[in-house]
Amino acid sequence: MSNTRQSWYEAGARERIAALVDPASFAEFIGPERREISPHLSIFDLPTQFDDGIVVGCGAIGGTPVFVAAQEGRFMGGAVGEVHGAKLTGLLRAAKAVARDVVIAFDTGGVRLQEANAGEIAIAEIMRGVVEARMAGVRVVGLIGGRAGCYGGGGLIAGCCSTLIVSEQGRISVTGPEVIETNKGVEEFDSRDRSFVWRTMGGKHRTLIGGADVFVEDDTMAFRDATRAALARAPKLDGNTLAAEQARLERRITRFGEASDATDIWQLLGIDDPWAIPDMPATGFATLADTYRERADDAR
Amino acid sequence: MRQWNTRKALREERIAAGGVFANAKAIDPKHLVDFLEAVLRPGDRVCIEGDNQKQADVLARGLADMDPARIHDLHMVQSGVVLPEHLDIFDSGIAKRLDFSYSGPQSARIARMLFGGKIELGAIHTYLELFARYFVDLTPQVALIAAVSADRHGNLYTGPNTEDTPTVVEATSFGSGLVIAQVGEIVDTLPRVDIPGDQVHFVLDAGRPFYVEPLFTRDPAAMTETQILTAMMAIKGLYEPYGVRRLNHGIGFNTAAIELLLPTYGEKLGLKGKICTHWALNPHPTLIPAIEAGWVEQVHCFGSEVGMEDYLAARPDIFFTGPDGSLRSNRAFSQTAGLYACDMFIGSTLQIDLSGHSSTITANRIAGFGGAPNMGSDARGRRHPSAPWLQAGAEADPDTPAPLRRGRKLVVQIGETFGEGNAPLFVEKLSALELAEKLDLDLAPVMVYADDTTHIVTEEGIANLLLCRNADEREQAIRGVAGFTEIGRGRDKTMLERLRARKIIQRPEDLGIDPLDANRNMLAARSIKDLMLASGGLYRPPSRFRNW
Amino acid sequence: MTPAEILDSLFPAGHAVTAEIDLLFGRGMLESGTVHVIGATGRAPIGIDQAIRLSAAVLEITSIDDAAPILFLVDTASQRMSRRDELLGLSEYLAHLAKSLLLAEARGHRTIGLLYGGSAAGAFIATALACGTLVALPGAHPEVMDLPSMARVTKLPIPVLEEKAKATPVFAPGLDNLVRVGGIAEVWDAGRSLSEQLTALLATPRAGDDRATFGSAQHGRTKAAAVASEILAVAGR
Amino acid sequence: MEILHFDIAAPTSAGGTRAMALVGVVASGNLEVLVERSDAPDRCAIEISTAAHGFRDLWTAVAEDFVARRAAGGLRIAINDGGARPDTVSLRLAQGVRMIEEPEA
């Protein structure tokens, strides 16, 4: 009776995991009943959440065991604190140890301000965890389409993943729109111009420049299907991968370095009517993107 | 010997004086202020649009730029006090007296100016009342109106946002007043003629479209689970049992949630075709999914809504459209339709007292009435029967023999027990009463009177006031749905259970509503983008509502 | 200390390090052998143009099979905040730089970050914190989040934040706090030969990412090590 | 943070067999409700941690109304509150007891 499509953007961390994994296959590590909460938020008289804003555990996708992590973007903007970060670090270390793939559903504004130092180092530990797991042959698939986007350190972790799956809503960047505006002025970045923000940081643009690999509808089933496909790809992270990424990112600056707006880049890609891109439905866009986009493929 | 044509003679004088700054009917835009000072006289009764949505904004600017030494003490009669200029003219002394209906965005300032004595208040009206008075004792001497385009003869095309214009022009022009129109462009051939040129005396080519506010767009992304719960209760506890087919919705999130639940929850209850088929309603974007799913047969509109134009033109079976294909709205007719031809009004409010009076006045804001009291009142002149009307009448008055019994319109207030800023919906004393005392008004500005209100819906339950037999029951029924507000916590629990047994109060659990269903997945659209996609790309949301 | 003073103290036997605006590239000689040197200096922000140049250098070193360590001198601002950098995908460039450093380490090049000035936010993560070992000189001032911004977001006055910072190293900027949460392995003595201190560091083998353990030992991060280990233990079964 | 404890006599025992249910998130105007089983089928224990100080009376009213209206006996409920309004609290509590009646996902 409800809307048949379950929105990924709207879903919480637990709902996303439930949609991703095979029914009844998920087992959480250090679940909310353990009340492993942030020891730091009380300093600021802020409420804690029993899972510190991240759910980690193991489950199966299409019968294949995987580790899964999902950030809760509504709790403190999905920001990474000490416990939150350590849960993901531990999961990635386990992935390397037992050679099991990892799926991370990102939804984060980056480091949690109130425990900034702990969060910053946690990001570094997680990035190391991702890269070391990948070098050991593990796939780390990132999913981005939540309300908090994937900002700050989250954007850097995403940049270490083997495959990134995004929806239109999924924004990937380092500095958030409001922070750029505060520091550099509204002429540099108008954070209230929402269509500009999405055009610059959103899933469609990231897909077109090769910043994300797979574009999907805002639908939990679409994310699941794309995840299954990504888990079937050959894992690889070695010198050749990074040499190819180096070339890919250098080429991006050469090709688009002078562009002042995303639509300029889309035009340079050969798209006739770049201003029509934002309104395009997901399927139409994905087809168009396949023709014109830059891709990362093995250069990630 | 009495002269019987002084009014027409005065109009001729005004036309001659204005003609100095115009080429035939076309005002020289460079001399707009000179023109206005030439046609106006101190103390004139002036109507400016000034509507709920569209604004004759360039003419409003022109009025404000006049010299108060030359033109002063105007008596403004206008349905909407919306632009800052509408009040600037009172600050400068150009205007003195005000009769109006609605003052949404200026509600705080108008309150300050009333307290400060800057405005001499005639009265705050409902739309139909003010329109009625245009024809009785508030006929404008000059009307400043807004249209999309004009031709060289002064014929006007008012487009989807026709709104008040025909009413204002009818009263002014045939009442020997002067009609001045602001248009976006002057063209050779109009798409259609909404106002005949012989009723229009001057035209200003503003060179750009008039300002219009997207007032009826509610972003589904902001809808809460509590609002969804109240919407489910309204559908299951009111729309279904009364079989409400002809209705009007107010503009809150609660009613927008009802619109978005029709194709999902309503479908599950098997109500398609049985409820919500005929509407007096602005083109709410949130109604798109229900229209597309085949729920809606016909909608008549007060005005249009920004971004909905192409969608409306593509659905002429549902909406009233002209030979050019675009929507024709008309506030006076749609208000009449809402008053006489609808069986239900449901809307949100800010305060409800223990007898059931409700008001949108808060301590420092005077938002006016708009049209809600026209919809939200029992039409005593109504004579045609319908099932919901008869059923409501029978509930209120079971003893009178049916052939002599009046039916009742369902007038429903819906909201959460705590509103914005945790303000309680239920209060001991309406702020409207305090305001009336402060301003020494004869009437407190009550939006919907207690004796018109038939039901109150909150997340706590539905109170059916029709079934209450005395003031005490009524008070306890209201307390019973007032949740954890002070009013709600003062409820008598024993009495409450008795009222529940008589279905005067129905809780969500009494209606068989599962709290787990109060979930955003239940909404047929969860974002503005979903609405755009549901319309097949025909709905083009204004940029402020976009996040893609 | 200036980069030149640092390099002289590190490599008394000589070095060939050249500056490209705010970036450094080259090598120095220790008694134990060659050390590759890169640097991000001058408190400059790291944007896509800086990151891609640095990663190119790291990958070039990685392609040389000499197992020589890489020393990364760091004195930056935060990541560059601009429309252009974000439009072109700064997150990928910073991640790529970090990955390059991690790959180099996996290929047998020790990576040592030497924080001698400032660094903040994403720039800090992609440079200093992506090295296998991070050391600092006194006076270094890492800053994840500056107190004024923090005051704005938390709506707490700076003096209140400063007072709270006395009780915990977890949020306030500064070298001591970063050391206590385990982010910085050693603070060198600027009065002693940096060459000796680097040689000693290189002589100590590194065993995995021990930052959480280190942070726990100093009561700066009391939970991270235990939580990560528990998950590794449960999930690794 | 203000911590409140309630232990209320419950007329109706909770159904289902699920060990735990979690609804809501800690966000502005929202809360999370963790529902677990206890040994006392005729009691409902509720612990609230809230940053909004000074609302004990309101919480008492909401908690008592909830236990009286819903099948909450034998439950131990822990709440992290992000400043939710009473209507949201009531809804989450109702969702929590419904969720623990549901079979495991």
What does this structure look like?
The complex is a heterotetramer of chains A (300), B (548), C (237) and D (105). Helices cover 41% and strands 12% of the residues of chain A. Chain A is an alpha/beta fold. In chain A, 62% of the residues are buried. Chain B folds into 2 domains: 10-212, Glutaconate Coenzyme A-transferase (3-Layer(aba) Sandwich), CATH 3.40.1080.10; 220-530, Glutaconate Coenzyme A-transferase (3-Layer(aba) Sandwich), CATH 3.40.1080. In chain B, strands 3, 5, 6, 7, 8, 9, 10 and 11 form an 8-stranded mixed β-sheet that branches. In chain B, strands 15-14-13-16-19-20-21-22 form an 8-stranded mixed β-sheet, sandwiched between helices. In chain B, α1 packs antiparallel against α2 (32-39). The model of chain D has no long low-confidence stretch (mean pLDDT 95). Helix content of chain D is 29%, strand content 32%. Chain D has one domain (2-101). Classes of the chains: A alpha/beta (300), B alpha/beta (548), C alpha/beta (237), D alpha+beta (105). The A-D interface holds A 12, 14, 18, 23-24, 26, 31-33, 35, 42, 45-50, 72, 74-76 and D 1, 20, 22, 25-27, 30, 32, 34, 36, 49-51, 78, 80-82, 104-105. Chain C: InterPro entries: ClpP/crotonase-like_dom_sf. Chain C: Pfam families: MdcE.
Short description:
The complex is a heterotetramer of chains A (300), B (548), C (237) and D (105). Chain C has 237 residues and is an alpha/beta fold.
**Helical proportion of chain C, percent range:** 40-55%
Order of helices and strands of chain C: HEEEHEHHEEHEEHHHEHHH
Compute the number of helices of chain C.
11
- Average of per-residue pLDDT values of chain C: 94
Estimated share of beta-strand residues of chain C: 15-25%
Strand content of chain D: 25-35%
The best one-word shape of chain C is globular
Q: In this structure, how is the largest beta sheet of chain C organized?
A: 7 strands, mixed
Largest interface: A-C, 86 and 77 residues
